[in-house]
Amino acid sequence: MAGILFIISAPSGSGKSTLVGQLRTLVEGLDFSISYTTRAPRGSEEDGREYHFTSREEFERMIAAGDFLEWAEVFGNYYGTAVSALEHARVAGKDLLLDIDVQGAVQVMQKMPNAVSIFVMPPSPEVLEMRLRHRSEAEHVTSEAVIERRLSQAHNELKQIWDYKYALVNDVLEQAVSEMRAVVLFERGARDGVQAMAEGCRTDRPSEKLKAALGTFGR
Length: 219
Ligand code: ADP
Ligand code: 5GP
Fold this sequence. Notes:
This protein has 219 residues and is an alpha/beta fold. 47% of the residues lie in helices and 19% in strands. The radius of gyration is 21 Å and the shape is elongated.
């Protein structure tokens, strides 16, 4: 794939989907990979929008057919990124965002070492628990077991944070969105050579070309 692949991971409930949603309204040229999952739709989720909701049988058929770039079992359900998402982004000339768990992220980092990985941290376990509770109350599916499981999984996932190139804390949403936007723009600048070109124009390290031009003015 010619564009940049951004891998975004976070403990469930950290606010990753919220962040990614806002980022996409601010930054052009970002495609979002809609994952396949065997979990049931939550709240107002729609098939083909947040996820492709599928059966275990169909998911296992896709694994066998080699349809996934990565897949993992998370909280008892399968989740996977279709290889075709890369091709769609390439054809559209866009960068691609993957919102995936740490197990999937490690697989993608190994297969695609140029991918840019970003970990989203909740500010504290207490805030994470509050967000998980608010979300499940809003969706009328409060389950103590689910919340406990997600909190304990958060501690496990944090162990992987240093494998990621970037990490940001989702405390104040606007600040976190700005940081994620900055990472995307910075990485695009690096890819396009924009940063190197700007560095080459700095006056504290004048280029030979600048020195020669100044020389013609006797400076
Ligand atoms: P994830 O995709 O990481 O599982 P969500 O995006 O669904 O998490 O966010 C979990 C809950 O936290 C949602 O109710 C969301 O509105 C809320 N939330 C997200 N970011 C913030 C933030 N910075 N401050 C307060 N609440 C937030
Ligand atoms: P949720 O059920 O809360 O939407 O997602 C649970 C977890 O599954 C989150 O950490 C989310 O990032 C992860 N996830 C979503 N899609 C994928 C995917 O395609 N692959 C992997 N490995 N994880 C995914």
